[in-house]
Predict the 3D structure of the following.
Amino acid sequence: MRAPVHPSDAPQPRPAATLNWLWSGTLASVLSALALAWHGRRRHGSSVSLLNAPSHWLHGERALRANMPSWRFTFWGLLIHQLSSLWWAALYEGLIRWARPGAGPDRPVPTEPPSPVAATPVDAARPVALAAAVTLLAWFVDTRAVPPKLRPGFERRASRAGIACVYGAFGAGLLIAGLNRRHRQIPASAGKTCGRADVAPSPGAPSN
């Protein structure tokens, strides 16, 4: 008889996997957009000054100087920011599934269900490491690897500390989504039997 599989190791249905990158990408987008608005307010006196910047993909240098909210600059800037965040979130979620222990067609069937309590630190460390790696990669690609025309644009108006804050907020969004999903997958009864030996009584032993 096949042993049960821990919920965190069980393959997720396709709709759930789709919702994973939508949720993590949107959360990362919102948190980093808030950081952009905060830094733009402090540096340029306008909360939308840095949010307008990504629309330079469509509207050129004028978008990098726009400090007022507008359909032309703000809407398209936010949309480009959201789509970029979803792209990086899809990479993050793909790495999460790839790095899951035993992932692949040749995964052996476990002989006994793994302990959720023992697996929790490892499960928490994996999203942290991958969120940091994807965030650093996103920063490198956005500010160093691609031509200026394809960069987000806000790096030209933000300070180094501001850019660090923005990408830190982005990485925090990925991480919060990953840890929240891990938390929801751990059974509510996990840890309740810690320290209690579930040993079957020997034949003939008196019962209480």
Q: What stands out?
A: Helices lie at 14-44, 56-59, 62-65, 71-98, 116-145, 160-185. The two ends are 31 Å apart (CA to CA). The CA atoms of residues 52 and 190 lie 47 Å apart. Residues 14-44 form the longest helix (31 residues).
